[in-house]
Amino acid sequence: MFDDMISTAGSICGAAKVLREHGAREIHVATSHAVFCGPAVERLKAANLASLVCTDSIPLSDDQIMPQTKILSIAPLLGEAIKRIHRNESISLLFG
After folding, report:
1. Among candidates 67, 62, 12, 59, which has minimal Cα distance to 33?
2. Residue 94 has pLDDT above 90, yes or no
3. What does each C-alpha distance from 21 to 10, 24, 27, 76, 80 come to in angstroms?
4. pLDDT at residue 3, rounded to an integer
5. Tell me, what's the pLDDT at 96?
6. Does residue 29 register a pLDDT over 80?
7. Contact 8, 38 (CB under 8 A)
8. Domain spanning 2-95 has what CATH number?
9. pTM of the prediction?
10. For 30-83, how does the pLDDT look when each residue is reduced to its tens digit (9 = 90+)?
11. Sequence ranges of the domains in the chain
């Protein structure tokens, strides 16, 4: 499953529950922005996800990172965008 942002994790955990009810053996979740406010971390831990992939667009504290969490750096993307802007080149291809 992919969600562009996980805030309280209610929607993503609800979707994970439905997937399990319909026979999913593993659930892998990806998000661009891990906001993780309120009960998000507790909900995600209880959802028993096989993996959770997010970017480092929002820094996570140690207590917000679960063993199955994989954090991807957006630094190369930002660097390429800066380079293209400096060269007056299109950045739209980076996000297509």
Report:
1. 59
2. no
3. 17, 7, 12, 39, 42
4. 73
5. 72
6. yes
7. yes
8. 3.40.50.2020
9. 0.85
10. 999 999 999 999 999 999 999 999 999 999 999 999 999 999 999 999 999 999
11. 2-95
Cβ–Cβ under 8 Å, residues 3 and 47: no
Asked if residue 77 lies in contact with residue 57, where contact means CB atoms within 8 angstroms, the answer is no
Sequence-distant (≥ 6) Cβ neighbours of residue 61 within 8 angstroms: none
As a whole number of Å, the CA-based R_g of the chain is 16
CB 13 within 8 A of CB 47: yes
> Which residues contact residue 35 at a Cβ distance below 8 angstroms, ignoring those fewer than 6 apart?
5, 6, 7, 58
How do residues 9-19 score in pLDDT, each as one tens digit? 999 999 999 99
User: What's the full length of the chain, in residues?
Assistant: 96
Q: Which helix (H) or strand (E) holds 30?
A: strand 28-34
Q: H/E element holding 48?
A: none
In the chain, count H helices and then E strands.
3, 4
| Residues 41 and 63: beta-carbon distance below 8 Å | yes
